[in-house]
Design a protein that fits this description.
258 residues; eight-stranded mixed sheet; globular; 40% helix; Rossmann fold; 7 helices; alpha/beta
Length: 258
């Protein structure tokens, strides 16, 4: 009898795993008159409401890399929404195009904030999201973006910036931050100067914000993306920093989603 019960438990477990499936959906939404197109991911093996995470893309817009990170979060049990800052169909292909597009939003922080806030609203509207447990992560341009979401005063538990820009034209807005901040930074990043890092830390300290800034020795800009092979110069994948930073994010989420 005991063997039969154990066999049935194992069988049911296998059936449950067989039914588990990564669900993805392209969602069209708007911010003002702009039409945006994001990417939702969740895993059906996790039942009920669960924490939600906004994912913000790099400077080339919402592409397969941001979608991959969204899927990775979904497999961890989160509902992930990879937002679209640039707009539907706007996907820069060259460094020059990407720089110009990213510059539009870096130079207009109020618009950048509204674009990421629109994506957060889409995530909050999902029926399987626990809206009391929200966070945002971003890569490069996306790292800058999630910090702006925090400075806006968004009601979220935490933000994680992976090799993102840290400067702010309005550092006094740090007083609005409700979220905990985790910055994962390449110690040898040539695009984020030591003075920019120091200014960010001073901004957080003056506002009394709970934050962590971790520097990975030898890591440069874009260290999490295997597509970065040194072009543009200073952007290079670092496997060790990539893996360690992802693990640190996972620990951070366990701390904030209690």
């Amino acid at each position: 009898m005991r063997i039969w019960i154990i066999s049935m438990v194992c069988f049911l477990g296998l059936v449950s795993q067989a039914k588990a499936e990564l669900k993805t959906q392209v969602i069209e939404y708007k911010q003002g008159d702009a039409v945006l197109e994001g990417y939702l991911s969740y895993d059906t093996s996790f039942v009920g409401k669960r924490p939600g995470v906004v994912v913000v893309h790099e400077w080339k817009g919402l592409n397969d890399y941001a979608k991959k990170r969204s899927d990775m979060l979904a497999k961890l049990g989160y509902v992930a929404f990879a937002v679209d800052i640039y707009g539907k169909g706007i996907r820069p292909q060259t460094f020059e195009q990407a720089g110009a597009e990213a510059g539009k939003y870096k130079g207009n922080r109020p618009l950048l904030r509204q674009r990421v806030l629109a994506g957060l609203d889409v995530l909050k509207a999902q029926t399987n999201v626990d809206t009391s447990k929200l966070a945002a992560i971003g890569y490069c341009f996306g790292g800058t973006t999630v910090l702006e979401l925090a400075r806006l005063g968004a009601d979220i538990k935490g933000v994680v910036s992976f090799h993102g820009g840290l400067s702010s034209p309005t550092p006094q807005d740090a007083k609005n931050i409700k979220a905990r901040i985790l910055v994962l930074h390449g110690a040898d990043d040539p695009f984020v100067s030591p003075s920019e890092v120091a200014d960010f830390e001073n901004e957080m300290k003056q506002a009394g914000i709970k934050y962590q800034l971790i520097k990975y020795p030898g890591a440069m800009h874009g260290f999490t993306n295997p597509a970065n092979t040194g072009e543009p110069k200073g952007a290079l994948y670092n496997k060790e920093a990539d893996e360690k930073s992802w693990e640190k994010m996972k620990e951070f989420f366990k701390e904030i989603f209690v």
